[in-house]
Amino acid sequence: MGQLEVEAEASEMGMDPARLALLEPRLRGFIDRGLMPGWLILISRGGKIVYLSRAGHRDVARQEPVELDTIWRLMSMTKPITSVAAMMLYEQGRLTLTDPVSRFIPAFEGMRVYAGGPPDRPMSVPVFEPVTIWHLMTHTAGMTQAFVHRHPCDEMLRNRGFGFTNPAGMTLEQAVERWASVPLLFQPGTDWNYSLATDVLSRVIEIVTRSPLDQALRNLLFEPLGMEDTGFWLPADRRNRLAQLYMGLPGGIGAALEDMALVPQERPTFISGGGGLVGTAGDYHRFLSMLARKGELGGRRLLTRRTVEYMTRNHLPGGVDLESFSRPLFTDVPMRGVGYGLGFSVVQDPVRHRSVSSAGEYAWGGVASTLFWVDPSEELEVLFMSQIIPDPAVQLRSALHPLIYHSIVD
Questions:
Q1: 4 part of a folded domain
Q2: Which of 185, 190, 230, 235 is packed most tightly, with the most Cβ within 10 A?
Q3: Contact 281, 287 (CB under 8 A)
Q4: 148, 200 Cβ separation under 8 angstroms
């Protein structure tokens, strides 16, 4: 849909160019200190791109620079896309948030909750209420992930062949059936745990649309938004644009993560709506712009204003934050004063969050050092892309907020 470019002078949109100029040397410092291979940052205000910068390399060994059309592994930034697709089906009346997941996936009928014992002989009790679509979208379903090594249920998943990757040849349908055989960590709705729930939601989307997830997302989102470089695999003619993924070590950039970084050239057997997408900054910017415009972009309305506002409210019981209502979260950002909506974190209390952000700011990121946030009150969108895991520059997100918000002078 055209090359990314600055669309308006920062000063015209109420931002101080001199203050914005402080961003680049701060971010270049991460490269100069060997903490990041390269990055791209985009800032939009009032619906127009006012700042666009990039530095470093998408492939260090080959000395290939980050370009505007570089393709990045979105990892968990796939989840908001999947969540939006589910809410489009909600608006069409094809599912409700209170629907039991078992309505679509019978294996979720009669789920049980872990009550003790070793992974090979667990004790469990029945659920008080069925797992619903809302539980999946808010990560309150009680599910977990195999790679966290934190709970016997995690080990049960590993015993079934799961880890950072899935058993060879397994489809999303087969994986979801196997996940349903593992007890839940807690009663649905009583806690928050970042989990495989969005992948289960992906399977619901497949069943409702009667199409594979990749085709469903293409029909619902990618084609209407012009997200031409976003998908679950990368054909040979685009692979030269893919950024390499690196391991972050205390002393700097480590080895390229060849196995974990593998992006298939053809359609994979397992399609992950929880973390499988790759795409460009330009494509993801179009997705964020649609959200910032309350569901509409370029004359195409994908969601209504009320649905976008509903998704980006805090859905945690009693308005609590993630710090007080969650299992330990893998993040470099404190979760004080931050709630969770339907696919997004939501700032509830900027003072408690210790950040010059705004109440109502919604955001998410990916484990490969990608992140975004949208601030409706300031009409602000920020998108940052890099490819290193884990991110050794732990102050990155905390550094971005003051530098960007202190540039707003209107």
A1: no
A2: 230
A3: no
A4: no
Query: Going by C-beta distance under 8 Å and a sequence separation of 6 or more, which residues neighbour residue 109?
Result: 100, 102, 130
pLDDT in tens, 86-145: 999 999 999 999 999 999 999 999 999 999 999 999 999 999 999 999 999 999 999 999
How much is the pLDDT for 289? 98
Phi/psi for 208 (5° steps) reads: -65, -40
- Contact between 404 and 23 under an 8 Å Cβ cutoff? The reply is yes
State whether 293 and 354 are in the same domain.
yes
238 in the same domain as 110: no
pLDDT in tens, 205-222: 999 999 999 999 999 999
CB 166 within 8 A of CB 270: yes
- CA distances 223 to 70, 203, 226, 245, 275, Å, are 20, 21, 5, 27, 20
Q: How far apart are CA 231 and CA 180, in angstroms?
A: 27
How far is C-alpha 161 from the chain's CA centre? 24
